[in-house]
Each structure stands twice: as C-alpha cells, then as structure tokens.
Specification:
700 residues; alpha/beta; Rossmann fold; 8-stranded mixed beta sheet; 20 helices
Length: 700
C-alpha cells in the first residue's frame, strides 16, 4: 500500500532550533548539496556545509583510482588474498560513494580473473557525519552512471540498500560479490571509537587500508584532528596503509605522530603532492599499544588461524540457528545445523512474524538493538526475496507497512517527528484510517512504519536450507566436549542411535534449553506465547484491518502460501487473520489453549472496539501455535563466546524479536568468530556478552 505523506506530518524548526536539536538529540543533519560545473562541463556536487567539492573537477572516478586504489596498492594486495581471507578498508568521508564504487568495480574485476578470490571477502567500513539524502545521491550517481556506464550495475544495488539517515552503524551485504559495507553515520571520531577491537578473541580484526577522504583540512579540520589519528593507530597493525589527496601539515603530523611512515608523491591532476603512508611495526610495539597489538602481526599476509573455522556446528534450528548458519555459510564455512526435532519446530515457527520495532527516542537510536536490527533485517529479507524467487519459494518478506496505535510504546508523536519519514512518521487521521481500514477508531495518535512487513518463516527456512554449505541433521544433543583442536557434539538421532560429530567450533542456539547444554549459559526466563488465527468469511474480511496493527498485542491479515501447511494448520492460498500473543511466565507447555485465544481477542477488541462485532466469538475453529520465548533480566539477547572457552559460542534469548534482531546478531557473532569488525559498537557487544554482570545472578 502506498501512503502519501502530508507536508504537515512533521514540523520543520528554524535553522537555529534544528542545530540545537541535532547536537542534543543525536539527529543526523543531511548534507546540503550545491552544484558547480567541472573542467569538462559536467555538473559536480559541492558541500553546502564546507564549501568544498566532493571529488576532483578533473575526473572524480580517476581521482579515486589514483589516490586510494593505486596508492594503497589495492590491485596487487586484493589479487593476492588467500581463499576465505578478509581484507578490510576503512574510509573517512563516504560522500557520494564514489570511492566505494571504484573499489567495488576493481574487486569484481579481480574476482573474475583470480579464482581463489571466490571465497575471499572485502569489508568496507565508512563514516559520514553529513550523509547525502537518497534523492540527491540518486541524482549524483545517475550522472556518474552516464559518464562511467561500468558503474551502473553497482549503483542500482547501492541505492536500493542505502539506509535511512539515522545515527549508528548500517550494514549492507552484497552477497554475490562477497562485499560487506558498514556505514557509520555520525561523528567520525565517535564512530571509530565504537569499532570493537577485543584482543581476548582471536583472530583480532584490524584495518588493512585507510581512505582518508574528508573535506580539505582548511574546510573541515575536525576530520583531521588528533583524536581521529589516535583511532586510526588503534585500529591499524604493521603494514596497514593509508592514502589521502591532502599534503597539509596537519595531516603529515597526525600520521607521523601516530605511527605511520609517510611519503609524498605526485598528486592527482593539477595537485602537486599527496600523501601515502604505512604503519610501522615499531609504532605497534610502543608502550601505549603493546597491550593491544600482537608482537609479530601478520594480519596483512595470508594466514589461516586454527581458530578460524572451516566447519561449524549450530545447535538449534529456530530463527537464531538458521540466521547463524546463513551468516557462517556466506563466509565459506561448512555448517552442520542440528535440532532435536525439525527446523522451526519451536517458538520461531509461527505462520507469520511481524517485522516492526518498538521505537525509541532518536537520541538512543544508534545504540538501540531493536531499531538497528529491524533496519538490517528489512534489507536482508528484501535481498533474500530475490533468492527465494529464483528457487520458486514464496516471498520471505511481504512489505505491508505497519501502524502502531501507541497504546504500549515508549515514544509519542512529538518524538516520532525526529525520525526521517522513510523510516517512521505519523499519519493524519484520514491517512491512518485509510491505511488501516478502521472506520470509527480515533487513530490520530499513531506511528506508521513504511518499511515494515510480514516475514514468512517457512520461506526463510527453505531458502536458508538450500544453501550448499548448510546441512541439516536431526539430533537431540546431550553433550558438548571442547578439545584443544576441535569440539565434539554427541546426541541421539531419530533412530535413537548415538551420533558423534566433530567440528572447529559450535554455536548454541537452543533458546531456553541452551542452559541444559552448557551450564555457563544463563538460565533465562521462560515465557509461553500463543498466537491465534482463523479463516474469516468474505464479510468479516472486508471489515478487518488491512495492514498489521500494533497495540498491546498485534494483529494482521495474511494469505497463506503454498507450503505454509508444513509448519501450521492453515488453509493454503486462503486469507487468514492472525492475532496475539499471550504472555505467560514460567510456563513451557505448548498445548493450544482456548482461554489464550480469548486473551488475544480481548486485547484486540479492548484496543479497537469496532472489532468486537467483526472478530468471531466462537473460537472452536480457531487455530494456534504456542512457543516458549527466552528472556534475560536486562531484555538483551546473549551473543558471544562463552567464558573460559575458545570454541563454544552462544546466540540465544531473542525474546519476541527474533526475526528483527537475529540477523544482525548473527552477523556480529560470525564477525567475532572470524576476526572481522562487527556492525555493533563495543558498548553494545558488552551488553550482549554471555559473561556480562547482569547474568551472574540466577533468576529467583
């Protein structure tokens, strides 16, 4: 459904108020774009904030290749990567994305000519305090597609994945090219400081090459300040390179004083000089950094740590296990996925899952896992829709939008106005009634989420299990043994035969049963939740809500797809109406209860009285599914490596938000396992740690 936003949906403060709010509320200020004509008569964008060009008037693409690709020796270094090796580039100043596009194009060309790069991976981390709005970026890159047609195939997926302009880390995965892009919106020094570098987990991630591409120091000195260079040193290791178009004194001093050996070379075009640099081993062995750098780092040469898995076991085939298996397999790791019964047999196997976050005031958003997870999940599921279509599988995500009636929310319409419209907004009363199909309800207080939708768990499961590196096996695990060189998992198969499987490591994703498999995993709170659904008559269907609604519960219409009946009792290819869910603490029974059908009906008609005459009171034909959610005392999931272990990891306690947060948590977990930078901050990883303080005291 397409919703037209009214210009009155958000108030626009004057510039002084907006500046004040930006600093106080962590609101991203979009870049203001001006235009000039370059040396060849083409339009080029100019920063309205800093008065500097985004790229050379001579030829921006040629400048990117000359300064950043050639003088970081990327053609040679990338071509020499070993299978499954990851090369990390960090950029200061995403700008128009031209450096990324130039690097991406080179990476594609190299992978075509070097077969060993089929499993190698490129990780591009970029920062931007004033990101360009999507409409302006589309205009800029459309012009580049005309000037350099070879970029056109890359521009389209980049624009499709470009995130809303909110602070924090946004992960974009381009699976066909083994390319991961992390965009950190906000102050560069703060973003770099949030990049986690935990030397207790091996291998430890480091940046291999730096693109120092901020606006000129004379225009924007903050991007060339000491705190920036200190972070560059922290995140680098011996032989890390850096290149910049600038040869200003502040840049020379910053690099030299933070461990880099610099060289002046001929600049691009009419520029006399530019700088290239390499991190010295002596700097990494200095007193300040000896505790955080390995004495004989070989990060920039092909290595194979015995802790980088070739084969991983994932225990539990709910949404956490499926997404962990998917993330591992996409890094070239063979995965054996185990479950005592079947994939999605537990709480993750509902007919549909609503992808809609519980929003937070914007000054919390960059550290709000539900919001950042929702944005990543919505991108991932849209990409997987294409994979599913190629395999004749139903869509994984049905984009519907969702309307939150703000009955149980920690944000009101005033704070919703801080968000970009393409992520969250408030509809007028008439718009909200039209979108929802409600006729008499006062829905003037609302939160509309345009990117929300319904996830089809069955389709997601089928798509993931079709990955050639994922093998599912039914096994009731009863023992995990960690050895020096491997881990051994034992259990009983469907024939009650004892089976033993060895692998490089194991990830426990067994929800509330995780504690039974390893006592070091916190014994979480168990919460029974039952969803209910029924097949409406044509008359009922005409009066039911047209899109998902959130209140103290949620409800949504959906059409059951072919194969949905494998998981649940639904009438395939028929309209259904789903509502729920119940919330019963310390109850692990999964039988369907009519009294919980009634609980869900009561929630709905209490929130929306006009539904009382539409939702049937006879529930004898209703269907349901009950599962057990797992919740920690601080409501954060458990993601990371177990204490006193090198090969046992855990990803659990997703609560009721698994389909929103499991994809991002799985990415972070696999990054830690493989020695890559995660899309989560150091502080967030600490909040998710299996060994955090809040999990040291058992529940009473």
């Amino acid at each position: 459904m397409s919703i037209m936003f009214t210009s009155a949906s958000k108030e626009t403060p004057d510039s002084s108020t907006q500046s004040k709010n930006t600093n106080a509320l962590n609101i991203i200020t979009p870049a203001k774009i001006n235009w000039q004509v370059d040396d060849t008569g083409n339009q080029v964008p100019v920063s309205g904030e800093f008065g500097d060009v985004y790229f050379s008037h001579a030829d921006g693409l040629a400048e990117s290749r000359y300064v950043f690709l050639a003088y970081n020796q990327l053609p040679e270094r990338l071509a020499n990567l070993a299978p499954r090796q990851c090369f990390t580039i960090a950029e200061l100043g995403f700008g128009t994305g031209l450096n990324l596009l130039a690097t991406w194009l080179l990476w594609r060309q190299l992978r075509e000519n070097h077969p060993q790069l089929a499993t190698a991976r490129l990780h591009f981390i970029t920062t931007e305090k004033f990101p360009i709005p999507l409409a302006d970026l589309t205009h800029i890159l459309t012009l580049w597609a005309q000037r350099a047609p070879q970029l056109a195939e890359l521009i389209a997926p980049l624009l499709a994945a470009y995130p809303p302009l909110i602070a924090g880390s946004h992960r974009l995965n381009f699976f066909d090219d083994n390319l991961t892009v992390d965009m950190w919106f906000g102050d560069a020094a703060e973003s770099l400081a949030r990049l986690a570098l935990d030397i207790s987990i091996k291998p430890t991630p480091y940046v291999d090459a730096w693109f120092l591409d901020g606006f000129a120091p004379s225009c924007n000195s903050t991007l060339w300040a000491e705190n920036i260079f200190a972070q560059i040193q922290r995140l680098s290791c011996p032989n890390t390179t850096a290149a910049t178009y600038s040869s200003a004194g502040i840049v020379k001093r910053g690099l030299r004083e933070n461990g880099f050996e610099i060289s002046k070379v001929k600049g691009f075009g009419r520029k006399n000089q530019m700088l290239t640099a390499v991190m010295t081993e002596a700097a990494c062995l200095s007193e300040n950094y000896s505790q955080s750098k390995p004495a004989n780092s070989t990060h920039n040469t092909p290595t194979h740590s015995n802790l980088k898995p070739d084969h991983s076991i994932v225990i539990g085939a709910g949404v956490s296990g499926l997404l962990t298996a998917w993330s591992l397999a996409n890094r070239g790791v063979q995965v054996t996925l185990l479950d005592k019964s079947a994939p999605l047999a537990g709480a993750s196997g509902n007919p549909r899952a609503l992808l809609a976050p519980k929003m937070t005031p914007i000054h919390h958003v960059d550290e709000h896992l539900h919001t950042m997870g929702y944005l990543y999940s919505s991108r991932l599921y849209r990409v997987l829709n294409e994979t599913a279509a190629q395999q004749n599988i139903a869509p994984i995500l049905e984009p519907t939008g969702a309307l939150d009636l703000l009955i149980k929310a920690n944000i009101g319409t005033e704070k919703i106005a801080d968000y970009p419209d393409d992520m969250a907004t408030t509809l007028s009363l008439l718009q909200a009634q039209d979108a929802s199909g409600l006729r008499t309800q006062d829905v003037s207080e609302n939160l509309y989420l345009p990117q929300s939708g319904l996830v089809n768990p069955q389709a997601l499961k089928d798509t993931i299990l079709n990955h050639p590196l994922i093998h599912f096996q039914q096994l009731a695990v009863n023992n995990i043994s960690e050895m020096e060189g491997h881990v051994c998992v034992e259990g009983d198969n469907q024939n009650q035969e004892l089976v033993s499987i060895t692998a490089d490591n194991v990830v426990v994703c067994a929800a509330f049963e995780s504690h039974q498999l390893d006592q070091r995993i916190f014994d979480c709170r168990k919460i029974r939740g039952q969803l209910s659904w029924f097949t409406p008559t044509a008359e009922q269907f005409a009066s039911l809500p047209k899109i998902p609604l959130k209140y103290s519960g949620y409800c949504t219409p959906f059409t059951a797809q072919v194969d949905d009946g494998q998981l649940n009792d639904v009438i395939e290819c028929s309209p259904q109406f789903l509502l729920g869910a119940s919330f019963i603490r310390n109850d692990t029974d999964t039988d369907i209860r009519e009294e919980e059908h009634q609980i869900s009906r009561n929630k709905l008609v209490t929130a929306i009285p006009e539904m009382d005459s539409v939702i049937p009171t006879d529930m004898s034909l209703w269907q349901g599914r009950a599962g057990v959610r797992t919740q920690t005392p601080d409501y954060h999931p458990i993601v990371g490596q177990l204490i006193d272990s090198e090969r046992v990891w855990v990803m659990s306690a997703m609560g009721a938000k698994g389909y929103a947060i499991a994809p991002l948590c799985a990415e972070a977990l696999v990054d830690m396992m493989l020695g890559s930078f995660t899309p989560l901050s150091t502080a967030m990883l600490a909040r998710l740690s299996p060994n955090r303080t809040r999990l040291q005291t058992p529940l009473t």
